[in-house]
Predict the structure.
Amino acid sequence: MSWLAALALPLILWGIGRRAFGRALSDPRSPLPRGPRAALALLAGALAFYLALALLAWAGIPWTRWRLLAMLAVFLAIPPLGRPAAVSHEGRPRESSPREPPRLGWGDVAAIALVVAFALIAATRWVTTPDFVYHWGLKAERFAGAGAIDFRVLARPWNGGPGVHPDYPNLLPSLYAATALLAGRFDAEALMLWSALFFAAVVAALRGLLAAAGVERWTAQAAIATTAAVMTTFALGNLLAGSADWMIALALAAAAPALCGLAGEAADLQIGVAAAFAAAAKIEGVPLAAFLVAAHLLARALREGPAARRPATLARSLLRAGLPPAAAIVPWLLVTARHGLFQASNSGPFDWSRRQAIWRGVLDVAGSAPLHGLPWALALLPLLWLSRRTRALAAVVSAQTLFYAWAYLASTIEPRFYVLSNGSRLLFQLLPAVLVGAVLATEPAAGAADPLPP
Amino acid sequence: MRKLLLGLALAWAGLAALREIDAAVTGYDLREQRPSAPFGWRAGTPAEVDLERFLAAARPLLPPGSAVAFASPDSSGNDALFRYRWAAYLLPEVDLLPTGSPAAAAASYALSFRMQLPPTRFVPLARLPGGWAYRVRPAGAR
């Protein structure tokens, strides 16, 4: 039953996202391939479900298996949001076909094999992140037991301290708790399936991005297999099963087509959904959400000329891209502040003298045996600045990297230990988008198909 | 040239992934030989299994939702802290409190893993595999 619930819930959330938001998340004139659309549908469905769970908790209505099932049924009955394609753009081509990737290739098969290998190993709990024990899983158990996001438990002083993070956003533990309630018991082995599903969604989103950008087949296959191999290495070598870092990587992968100018009119909402998902997943997802929205608006204004720079147009874009993350961030901020959950260890005075210890930590992470030198792939980031197509993606990843550097410099935690404790996980969040972005940026046809003006 | 570089990157990453798959599978097969410092515990290592067995035996003795202090030897570094973290995860039915915290002073029950607590304050409820369960006398009571 646990395995069934862990498989069924993401599928139902994907179904909800596809049915309710699929139309709004897709521009009929510039439709994305199935992979990015599926990833965005999963994100939208998970977010809608999470906000409804938070609302129930706020209203004092406990989560139970039957209430959750009823809620999922109601969501599935919601009529599609957004205008039907046939009447949306009179006088223009009504609908184009997405540039789907051709049939499965060798790189896809390799990526699927790696996802399956990871799923099987993760199911043993041997590569489960210690953070699942210290907070993600612990919170999920408590939420499932209380039938709510239990802020009283989070606010207890012994639930604070380094490594426990009572102030983190609660999307992941809420999804785990809902899975446990639907299954009738908390089964950590089955919950590891969520990480494998997020892994598969990242691969599917990036595979579709490569196809939408018209990357030549061998290169696309090699890129997707390389990305999956890098993710597998990080996930196994650095114990990432059960962590929320997959969700940040997924948010970035799902936002990448819009950042690269391939999503048409739906780009605002796609960015909004990806930003909201990142912000609801982890605390570092909040700045990522801001960077996604800002980079998208700037890129859109530059890409689409003076018409897109009119205040009314910008305001509409800001509303579509900014409302979903605001819906995820504002309630979390208010409730977390009200319960006094923000941790003093989150930040400290900016101290430039910490840089040498931080750099030593970075070198240690980059040279750590289980990562096989793969962290150095972040050095590909400057390539993304060279192509106009990938410049907005480069801006987001660069801003997030600078934010991490700032967090290390402005902290009270011993700097080298701080970097060693989470540096590779933070890299993992960014690397899939950087790897595929580097391939896009160096694609010979990229200049010709570049959607930005010279 | 680009294809060659991408091919080399694929070979590098593929080899790294295969080595980590091999390391994970081998590590899992040899989990019973893994050292037991709580900081490095993983599910299925002998020390973690011992704690899980101890807590499973304690579970029926503790009313759900009760405040329970948890003690274990702090042999080196933060061993007791990390053991406590694991115990809190493995026994979510109660409010498990680390001994030494102000809240633990008000706990009604106590669990001690691989150590005993002084009988002046802690009345043994049961000897369990790996430790003891106690009822805590209120402070000041004889």
